[in-house]
Amino acid sequence: MSVRIQTADFDAGIEMAALRAGHSDVGAVVSFVGVVRDMNDGASVAGMTLEHYPGMTERSIQAIIDDASARWQIFDCLVIHRVGELKPVDQIVLVVVTGAHRGEAFAACEFVMDYLKTQAPFWKKELTPSGGRWVEARTSDDEAAARWIDTGYKKTI
Amino acid sequence: MKLRLLYFASLREQLGTGGEEVAVPEGVSTVEGLRAYLMARDVAWGAALAPQKSLRVAVNQVMSQPDSPLKSGDEVAFFPPVTGG
Fold first, then answer.
1. Which tens digit of pLDDT belongs to each residue from B49-76?
2. A52 vs B contacts (CB less than 8 Å)
3. CA of B80 to nearest chain A CA: how many angstroms apart?
4. B58/A56 CB distance under 8 A
5. DSSP letter at A7?
6. Residue A123 and residue B82: Cβ atoms within 8 Å?
7. Contact, A26 vs A107, CB < 8 A?
8. Is A106 a domain residue?
9. Contact (CB<8Å) B85/A93
10. A153 lies in a domain?
11. CB contacts < 8 Å between A and B, how many?
12. How many domains does chain A have?
């Protein structure tokens, strides 16, 4: 279980291979890659700056991974999140989960992303034709995270 | 009581600083009390920390509640709702 916050890009294929290397009990590898889009909320986006809270960001993502591990039968989980200057089509975030079966791995991966988006301290500032603007939090993200509570998840973070 | 305050993202820009060391008077013992003290201290903080801003507050890098207690040496971070991922 590991968390990496970095400015550098990542290679999802290499990370997925590394996470299951030497583990012949792995039957499922699920991954999610988040990417910078060139449009958001009706404006074109030329780039963005991602700010974070060093220390708390890593700690909060680790807590989310720990919760996912307690809830589902998974073997390992890796989260890489980039910070700094990013452009459209750049990769922002990678979540990889390994497990014996796909169901648990899919659920854990989605859970980690839903909670990362609503709990981990990152902030995006987009560069649009009318200048820089801080991205507003979405209620749809809160709703996505809240649906896990209905299935028995106890919020501890 | 001495505290280390941190401000992030739009709040950092609005206040023009990423943080400060403060010595708060006796009687300021909770997150809510600190927020009220800072708002009364300076008009810029009064506007930036107003309740309708729906800011989050973390104490020692853990999300807090308004009644969370504070002790000397704590790191208290104020920031807007998060938008990563």
1. 998 878 999 999 999 999 999 999 999 9
2. 84
3. 8
4. yes
5. S
6. yes
7. no
8. yes
9. yes
10. no
11. 71
12. 1
Chain B residues closer than 8 Å to A113 by CB: 85
The predicted complex's ipTM stands at: 0.94
Q: CB-based contacts of B36: which residues, under 8 Å, 6+ apart?
A: none
Domain extent, residue A71, equals: 2-146
Q: Looking at the domain assignment, is residue A43 inside a domain?
A: yes
At A65, list the tokens: 């991974």
- On chain A, the residues whose CB falls within 8 A of the CB of B85 are 34, 81, 92-93, 113, 116-117, 120, 122
Identify whether the C-beta of residue B80 lies closer than 8 Å to the C-beta of residue A134. Answer: yes
Mean pLDDT computed over A111-121 = 97
Label residue A152 by pLDDT band (50, 70, 90).
low
Q: Return the ∠ at Cα B7 (arms to A118 and B79), rounded to 5°.
A: 25
Which chain A residue lies closest to B12 (C-alpha atoms)?
Answer: A51
pLDDT for A79 beyond 90: yes
For position A151, what pLDDT does the model report? 65
Q: Which residue has the higher pLDDT, A157 or A1?
A: A1
Q: Which CATH number characterizes residue A55's domain?
A: 3.90.1170.40
Q: Which of B14, B56, B83 to mutate against chain A (most A CBs within 10 Å)?
A: B83
Chain B residues in contact with A60 by the CB 8 A cut-off are 61
A4, HSE (Cβ side, Cα atoms, 13 Å): 14
Q: What is the pLDDT of residues A23-39, one digit of tens each?
A: 999 999 999 999 999 99
pTM of the prediction?
0.92
Question: Is A92 domain-assigned?
Answer: yes
3-state helix, strand, coil in chain A (%, to 5): 35, 35, 30
Per-residue pLDDT at A104: 96
